[in-house]
Amino acid sequence: MKAVHFLLTLTAFALASFIASAADPSPLQDFCVAVNEPHKALFVNGKFCKDPKLAKAEDFFFFGLNVPRDTHNPVGSNVTQVNVDLIPGLNTLGITLARIDYAPYGQNPPHTHPRGSEILVVAKGTLYVGFVSSNQDGNRLFTKVLKEGDVFVFPIGMIHFQFNPGHVPAVAFAGLSSQNAGTITIANSVFGSDPAINPDVLAKAFQVDKNVIEKLQKQFWFGNDN
After folding, report:
1. pTM of this structure
2. For 158-179, how does the pLDDT look when each residue is reduced to its tens digit (9 = 90+)?
3. Which residue positions does the secretion signal occupy (predicted)?
4. Domain range for residue 190?
């Protein structure tokens, strides 16, 4: 009986190991639609690789992240993402860096990164930050007021935000665990989609009058990470 139990346990471990090793690669873009004819293919899941012998130092370099960004916009923040599009050498390395500038009382509105977790450090000023857990975890809000040198983590896929409660500018730097973590700003995606989501759907989802939804859909939604 012990031999049978041991064999079953060994089989279970073997299957788990096989499943783990056979998992599909993580997506590095919003979608990657398959094509049957290779000559019509336009994208790969990530970027094509240069011959390593042709790589140069500039492929791994970016300058100017010390320069303050313009925050004169509706949300009062500016996100500068240093991803694989700016540093080609990041391809396949699974990391991205970002500088975030905040005007006094500016914010990085509630958003998610579908393909990466984020770790943020405050370099200047004070930030009120937080994220909301999933429905299964009761939509719990985790918040903290961060000062210079403080660090906070936003798990992958969680809706999160940063707000500058001070009357002086703030600056933070963030690392993300993907070469293209993606950003979905909640208000922009829900009320500024193209074409617009049927207002009846949103009115029922948000439990408000349809006129409120139509008003929100008509206004301009600014993206601070363009």
Report:
1. 0.83
2. 999 999 999 999 999 999 999 8
3. 1-22
4. 183-225
List the binding residues for oxalate.
108, 113, 118
Q: What total number of domains does the chain contain?
A: 2
**Interval 120-131 mean pLDDT:** 98
Report yes or no: 87 and 184 within 8 Å, Cβ to Cβ.
Answer: no
> Can you say which residues are annotated as belonging to the binding site?
108, 111, 113, 118, 160
**Please, are residues 65 and 80 in contact by the beta-carbon 8 Å criterion?**
yes
In the sheet that holds 107-112, the strands lie side by side as 141-146, 127-132, 159-163, 107-112, 184-185
Are 125 and 211 found together in one domain?
A: no
Position 8 in a domain: no
User: Is residue 110 reached through a cis peptide bond, with omega within 30 degrees of 0 on the bond before it?
Assistant: no
Do 60 and 153 sit in the same domain of this protein?
A: yes
Residues 130 and 175 in one domain: yes
Decide if 66 contacts 99 (C-beta within 8 A): no
Binding residues for Mn(2+): 111, 113, 118, 160
What are 188-215's pLDDT values in tens digits? Answer: 999 999 999 999 999 999 999 999 999 9
CA distances from 110 to 18, 86, 154, 159, 160 (A): 38, 25, 12, 6, 5
pLDDT surpasses 60 at 19: no
